[in-house]
Sequence to fold (372 residues):
Amino acid sequence: MTIQPFKLERYFARYEFSVKYLLSSSDCESLGMDELFGMAAPESRALWDGLKLGYTESQGHPLLRAEVAKLYQRILAENVLIAAPEEAIFVAMQTLLQPGEHAIAVSPTYQSLYEIARSIGCHVTPWPLQSTPAGWALDIQQLEASITDKTRLLVLNFPNNPTGYLPSHQEFDDILSLARKHNLTVFSDEMYRLLESDTGLRLPSLADAYENGIALSGLSKSFALPGLRIGWLVSQRSDLIPHWLAFKDYTTICNSAPSEILGIIALQNTARIVQRNLDIIRENTAIATAFFAQHSDKFACHLPKAGSIAFPEWHGPGTIEQLAQGLLDQQGVMIVPGHLFDIPGKHFRIGLGRKNFGEALEKVDLYLEMRI
Fold:
């Protein structure tokens, strides 16, 4: 298998641990151990205190899978596979696709959601999000026109990384109607689900809404626990689990025992953790609104209705790469240029989930005053 370098991850590897301000972080402010343990029920804390560091069940701890299943309406614990989120994408794509088949993927999105399919030998057609005066939008007719007799998989990512786009309930239903019409398998990256600014905007999980769908989620984004490396695949299709497990035998085999217990504690406190993260996002959204209003001549930005990220466009002089490098060199601020998502032009990603977001924007403001 030949696979292209993961541009976003290589960029983060270069700068993430050497700069002070990660303005493009996609996750929320990470929870600390004390904060998480402060939420633990006695029974869960006993699991931690009595933990032995042996091998774990390949499919995931039964209690962890049971907690994951509670997030869904039609998913049983036996239809949950626990894996690192990136591993879960890899396992799913390797077991769903064959060389010569065709996939369609929302664009922009996380690179592995389409790059793995290409590495298998599949043709991948982007379904592009368009920036309109009203916000980001998808053209359902363009999706239908892209479907061929070789199309096997439709890849969705709502709330979207990096734009923050979330379709309406009607748009979501239209997508699923088209998938049913053409008997497509649909893979849905839902890592930012639960971070809607209004719960009325929240879409059902694809795993609940579509009988031939697979949903990916995990603890990295909405739960602010990326260091646990705990994610999951869920589907109403119980026939997929044996294939996923057989492939996982060649990746991690099983999960981290400490991470699984900490994951149980987190999921038992879903509402509390999500509310904590939404409070950070809402505060930062207000700061971002003021910043972009102040600099409306230099930026255009659709702030998200869901998730912790946005994809503004630079309207100032020079390229977005020049702006990014200047911020790195002079202010210690990292932003992610759009070309790392295979999007040309002057878009870049910002993250609204970190507590030092306002301080980072102050550094951007200072840079603009000095350089522009």
